[in-house]
Amino acid sequence: MRGSGVANKLQIRRPHPHLKINGRRAAAAVVLTGNTAVRGDAVTRKTRMEPSIFLAKLLGPSFIVMGLSVLIDPVKTQRMGREFLESAALIYLSGILALTAGLAIVLTHNIWVADWPVIITIFGWLAILAGITRITSFGLVRKLGGRMLERTRYFAAPGAGMVLLGLILAYFGYFA
User: Fold this and answer.
1) How far apart are CA 58 and CA 174, in angstroms?
2) Within this chain, do residues 100 and 136 fall inside the same structural domain, yes or no?
3) Are residues 20 and 107 in the same domain?
């Protein structure tokens, strides 16, 4: 170990020969903490934000398309919702998928900051709760879902919310 005038908390070591940062072999001394690369005393923002950006690029367009679908044809959405609620197998399967997706997000992106990445973390936790509810409480899901599907005029706000959330995530994933 060699010192380089950096804070005593950092251990400066010779980098592993196969270590790459931002696609390039690390030539300078590097310390890795979790999934964050540290050079000297500056944390590389790009490396720290990569999971957030990837998930924003994945979820943003998905939310936009789902929200637009609800806004464009609420009657079709209502019909699909009723068909979904009639099938215990579909509710159970969607619970497994939601639980799995939520766990994947939370395990890779449990980031609680006062910034946009917290949106992804909250979505992950909500997906976990939705999955558990669908798997364990079929009757409750059917009851609440039936109430939500009673009037198509109430679909505009959730549809617009999904589009807005998708636009925010897409902006941070692709443009910011």
Assistant:
1) 10
2) yes
3) no
